[in-house]
Amino acid sequence: MAKVKFERSKPHVNVGTIGHVDHGKTTLTAAMTRVLSAKFGGEVMAFDDIDNAPEERERGITIATAHVEYETEARHYAHVDCPGHADYVKNMITGAAQMDGAILVVSAADGPMPQTREHILLARQVGVPYMVVYL
């Protein structure tokens, strides 16, 4: 069986969600796939599908980076959902190193927390050129 060659017809952008643990990074990622799939087609990834490792479900936190893809009219996006917990900073750095831009998720109820600042500094150190804040 011959492999179908993937042809990129749109510019490709690597983005990711970063920020403090439990501020809603995975929830935002799941919501983005739902909204964009309704408008442009594609696969919806539920919260449980993104954090699908048994330990992640048991503890209720992201441990490993998770990858989802979606499209808009103009671009194809590869999205990395990074862990926010301090114990998994190495996994966050691995995900951020490939980002063209980051979405910094900050809980409006809690405001900036210790990992928020650390994720900003680490993203800058690995060369993430653009960052937007989602409250």
**What's the helix count?**
5
Quick check: average pLDDT? 81
At the first level of CATH, the class is Alpha Beta
Order of helices and strands: EHHHEEHEHE
Strands, count: 5
What fraction of residues sit in β-strands? 15-25%
Which consecutive residue ranges, at least 5 long each, have pLDDT under 50? none
Strand order of the largest sheet: 2-3-1-4-5
Helix content: 25-40%
Number of domains: 1
Q: Give a short account of the largest sheet.
A: 5 strands, mixed
Write the CATH fold name.
Rossmann fold
Distance between the termini: 48 Å
Using only C-alpha atoms, the radius of gyration works out to: 15 Å
Which structural category fits the helices and strands?
alpha/beta
Commentary on this structure:
- With 135 residues, the chain is an alpha/beta fold.
- It has one domain: Rossmann fold (3-Layer(aba) Sandwich), CATH 3.40.50.300.
- The chain contains five helices and five strands; from the N terminus they run E-H-H-H-E-E-H-E-H-E.
- It has helices at residues 25-40, 47-50, 54-59, 89-96, 114-125; strands at 12-18, 66-71, 76-81, 101-105, 131-134.
- The chain has a five-stranded mixed sheet.
- Strand 4, helix 5 and strand 5 (131-134) form a beta-alpha-beta unit.
- The protein is globular.
- The termini are far apart.
- The mean pLDDT is 81.
